[in-house]
Amino acid sequence: MLPRYRQEFQAQFSPLSYSAFLADLGRRVRCPIEFRVSETPCFFDGALMRSLSDAAVSMTNSLVDDPVYLEMAAQVVPARFRVANSETLPAFVQVDFGLVKDRKTVEGRLVELQAFPSLYGFQLALGDAYAREYDLLSDGKLSPFLSGLDRSGYVELMRKALVGKHDPANVVLLEIEPARQKTRPDFEVTDATWGVRAIDIHDVIVDGRRLFYKRDGSLTRIARIYNRVIPDELERKGLSMPFDLRDDIDVEWLGSPDWFFKISKFSIPHLRHPWVPITRFLSEALEGDRLGAAFADRERWLLKPLFSFAGGGIVFAPTDAQIAAIPEAERANYILQERVDFTPVIDTPHGATQAELRIMLVRDSSSYRPVLPLVRMGRGKMMGVDHNKGLDFVGASAAFMTQTRK
Questions:
Q1: pTM over 0.90
Q2: Rounded to an integer, what distance in angstroms lies between the CA atom of residue 181 and that of residue 122?
């Protein structure tokens, strides 16, 4: 992928430059980073990134513009997460693609999608740190941003999306124990860049229909919640939100919890796009407690729970015993997805490495706009940083690409 830039990077890379890069990144995020950051950024042709971006927007629009789908999706939201004053449409959508080589062309294959915020702050800092350490932007030919954005344009677009007409003090990033989350670096950059502070769910003060928190010792109104509370984590930990989501609370939502369910792995069987692997609801694929003949080659299939996060609960090549162990009433909450072998397309000193790209979308006026790519590099069975421990030139990375259109 863009051999010239790959070769130039490899020529100047050293363990000392990696250490300097990590130190710079640490200063930018103002806290420890508890996941692996790759030694290298990735370099991509703008045409590939346009294809990925166009596919992400097309898939998202096919769901949010379909009233029949939205009605079905509304029915899968658990009762406790049916938000009274929800977003009409989600402000943020993430679409993840693995890269595969089809003959001489590199294409994407959908992994999953989610209407939930991603690392909009951390990826900004990560791109800045790579660019500074390795002088990646001086020739004006590369950009870490999509849709023709530059850094100032991205920061302003995100300011409008996060804060809008509010005082940033009245917008909070809501999370479960934010200081203990691996995503804390993103929270710190969000605070430093846009003034939106992370608070714990237990720090919300409810007064009738209104919400408050203590900011620097002063009781401060919460007008908008930038929600980073993952429903799956609430369920696993047996926690509750500080108020009933079904109540008529006077607050605006970004990342409303009900959209976590409405656009999710539940959506994949409803998508029609050549980059979507064959995907079936488990309840529809079963003949009794066994999979039908179409699923005989189990190595081709993945079993995924619909609403887990960060790859949790995925089973490779599920057996009849594993299928039968899922209660019949729960089988509609799983999908079987055709397994796609990503092509190792990133050359590194430790061998060719796979890349999974997340196209991060922001709803801008009446449309979804691709703004940043997030990259995971890996040589393990799965792409998450937890599945590539002990390896070099893997982990979280940023993409730099030849300029993409607006």
A1: yes
A2: 13
Q: Would strands 395-402 and 42-44 be described as parallel, antiparallel, or unpaired?
A: parallel
Strands 224-227 and 171-175: parallel
CB 326 within 8 A of CB 359: no
Alpha-carbon gap, residue 265 to 308, rounded angstroms = 9
Backbone angles phi, psi at 121, to 5 degrees: -85, -50
Q: Contact at 8 Å (CB) between 241 and 229?
A: yes
Q: Which one, of 169, 128, 143, lies nearest residue 27 by Cα?
A: 128
Mean pLDDT of the chain: 93
Residues in the chain: 406
3-state helix, strand, coil in the chain (%, to 5): 35, 25, 40
Q: Taking 70 as the threshold, does the pLDDT of residue 385 lie above it? A: no
pLDDT tens for each residue of 265-275? 999 999 999 99
Q: pLDDT tier at 313 (50, 70, 90 boundaries)?
A: confident
**Phi, psi for residue 210 in degrees, rounded to 5:** -105, 155
Joined together, the tokens standing for residue 51 give: 């294809």
| Cβ–Cβ < 8 Å for 313, 305 | yes
Task: Please give the average per-residue pLDDT across 334-353, as a whole number.
Answer: 91
Per-residue pLDDT tens for 27-55?
A: 999 999 999 999 999 999 999 999 999 99
For residues 98 and 48, the answer to whether their CB atoms sit within 8 Å is: no
How would DSSP label each residue in 52-93?
HHHHHHHHHHHHHT-HHHHHHHHHTS-GGG--TT--SS-SEE
- What secondary structure letter does DSSP report for 7? H
pLDDT at residue 74 greater than cutoff 90: yes
Looking from the CA of 358 toward its CB, the CA atoms found within 13 Å total: 26
What's the whole-number mean pLDDT along residues 233-245? 92
